[in-house]
Amino acid sequence: PLILPDVTLYMLPHDQSDAPYVELAGWIENPKGAETFNTHTLKEVIVWHNPPSVNVYNVVEHGRRFFRVLEYTSNMSICLHEVEGDPYPDRIAGILSMSAGIPMTT
Q1: Helices and strands (H, E) in the chain, number of each type
Q2: What are the pLDDT tens digits along the chain (106 aa)?
Q3: What's the alpha-carbon Rg for the chain, to the nearest Å?
Q4: Cα separation, 71 vs 86, whole angstroms
Q5: Which residues sit opposite 91 in a β-bridge?
Q6: d(C-alpha 46, C-alpha 73), whole Å
Q7: Alpha-carbon distance 19 to 49, whole Å?
Q8: Which H or E run contains 46?
Q9: How far apart are CA 92 and CA 103, in angstroms?
Q10: Cα separation of 2 and 46, whole Å?
Q11: 3-state secondary structure of 91
Q12: pTM of the predicted model, to two decimals?
């Protein structure tokens, strides 16, 4: 299953095959009629090679600075922050782990 359906993710153009992780970024459209000033939310996805895991962040502005807010992790045991919500079992690259969060959160 797709973690972020209908979102086009972009990465840097140089070769990242030997990197320990890769950063992807894309925009997700906020629901119509939502009580928000923004029409889109910037998402950053960090994909780790070893151990295989995926972290999804919302990028938010506060005082003209940008911060990542963790919204989803595919492996809670190696995540450095606690994600809201109950953990659930999931498989990433054939490895069973406990995932948490909702990646589509705007």
Answers
A1: 0, 6
A2: 478 888 899 999 999 999 999 999 999 887 776 566 667 889 999 999 888 889 999 999 889 999 999 998 888 888 877 787 777 777 767 777 788 888 877 6
A3: 14
A4: 13
A5: 96
A6: 10
A7: 8
A8: strand 40-48
A9: 15
A10: 15
A11: strand
A12: 0.82
* Alpha-carbon separation of residue 14 from 3, 18, 44, 78 (angstroms): 24, 11, 18, 27
**8: three-class secondary structure by DSSP:** coil
Contact 97, 90 (CB under 8 A): yes
For residue 50, the one-letter residue type is N
CA–CA distance, 55 with 72 (Å, rounded to integer) = 6
98: Cα separation from own chain's centroid: 15
Number of residues that make up the chain: 106
Query: Looking only at Cα atoms, what is the longest distance across the chain?
Result: 43
